[in-house]
Amino acid sequence: MAVRNRFAYFVDRSGRQVTVGTLEDIEQMDLGRGQIYYCDSEQALVQGVKEYYHKECIITLRSPMDEFKENLSR
To answer: What does the pLDDT look like over 23-61, one tens digit per residue?
Structure first.
């Protein structure tokens, strides 16, 4: 059984701006240069983005994600 990625986050080339959202929302954006990372759950998304949060990078939510916001700041 294949795991389907439902979430993604984009890190710009500078590594200082992160855009987070559902897979569909992130792939629809014209993000320019950088890297997209794919996640199969919100928990995996939190783990991937947490290092940027602690570095005080700019994190933008493209999709409504209340659970993500709560878990990121813990």
So the answer is: 999 989 877 789 999 999 999 999 999 999 999 999 999
| Structural domain contains residue 31 | yes
Alpha carbon distance 41, 54 (integer Å): 20
Q: What is the pTM of this model?
A: 0.89
Q: How many domains does the chain have?
A: 1
**C-alpha–C-alpha distance, residues 72 and 51, integer Å:** 10
Residues 6+ apart with CB under 8 A from 12: 18, 31, 32, 33, 34
**Cα separation of 46 and 55, whole Å?**
14
For the chain, what is the radius of gyration of the CA atoms?
Answer: 12
